[in-house]
Task: structure prediction
Amino acid sequence: MGLTALDKQIGFLREIDRLKTVVRQSPLLDGSRKENSAEHSWHVAVYALLLDEYACGPVNTNRVIQMLLLHDIVEIDVGDFPIHSGSSSELQAEQESRAAARLFGLLPQQQGNELLALWQEFERAETEDAKFAKALDRFQPLLINVFTGGGTWTENSVSLEQVFSRYGPVIKKGAPLLWAVCEQWVTQHFVGQASGISRQAS
Amino acid sequence: MGLTALDKQIGFLREIDRLKTVVRQSPLLDGSRKENSAEHSWHVAVYALLLDEYACGPVNTNRVIQMLLLHDIVEIDVGDFPIHSGSSSELQAEQESRAAARLFGLLPQQQGNELLALWQEFERAETEDAKFAKALDRFQPLLINVFTGGGTWTENSVSLEQVFSRYGPVIKKGAPLLWAVCEQWVTQHFVGQASGISRQAS
Result:
């Protein structure tokens, strides 16, 4: 006897439990440990729920939330590619596409196809919804770094210019008003760090 | 100068980061550790995205998802009340109401009021959306226990009758078709356990 629709949905829900074991580079705000991709997905979905007024254009908040709930599940197969790792984005995209096909393929066909299409829309970052979702996915770790005194920037010796080039375009494209705030935060962070260093050196 | 709307929203988003440190009784499916309330909230929101066809009545899936994203944030102040702890539900409700007022009160007033109302709707469990959300919030840990060979039931010496009485009414009310599957799982689990015990004893 074949699997019922519910069997397949439960199979998918069991499989994605593994996202809780994918550890990201970003710490919790209390610095106690690194966050994982499941709790990151929860957090950034709440960002979407609250911050839609800052989107670049008219967005369907609920579609953005759905995208963000699912955007990282491919990491179950391929892991997290940290923004500061310099890994090949072409190889990454290929691996993630295969992972998406496998994971969404666990679902009943129509549902799996619909959610795969939503994931692909996020990846392509062309629609207003996807641009805003991508912006939030970049804004959340930036905020963590700012409010943990450097976070992954300090760990990876990332410069102000690198922060601007690695986060700026994506956040600016999807949420220009949030990027304006980020510019202030980031500048203050690096200026503060530089003055701290010069104080230490003097 | 007062806080801007964005200042308040960011204050809220920073505050709820703490949900990642609230540890629940339920383990991950791989048994490696207990899950926390942030990753639980993510997981159960995806349950809602996939399983709305099993709701007792017509539901607005996106409202259910929003409820589930926010339903546990009160635990930041009051912790998780485990289903098998036998704690006073009146005291719990009072503490959680105070926590909700504090947390949603961090947001701009209108947004805070809207989301507080959504949280209260979930707690009252009277609308179709809230009944379904409550059912999923009970279904997810049941599924974990079934697929980890007992989980919190084994730890707390919970009987088949207790599982039926503690999970049954809520799941049945919001998602009767899911409860039908749960009944089979739970019965099989306890029958298997009983035959294991009798085999050990013989």
Q: What stands out?
A: Chain B touches chain A at residues 5-6, 9-10, 12-14, 16-21, 28-30, 32, 35-36, 38-39, 41-43, 45-47, 49-51, 53-54, 62, 65-66, 69-70, 107, 111, 115, 143, 147, 177-178, 181 (CB under 8 Å). The CA atoms of residues 27 and 34 of chain B lie 4 Å apart. The longest helix of chain B spans residues 176-201.
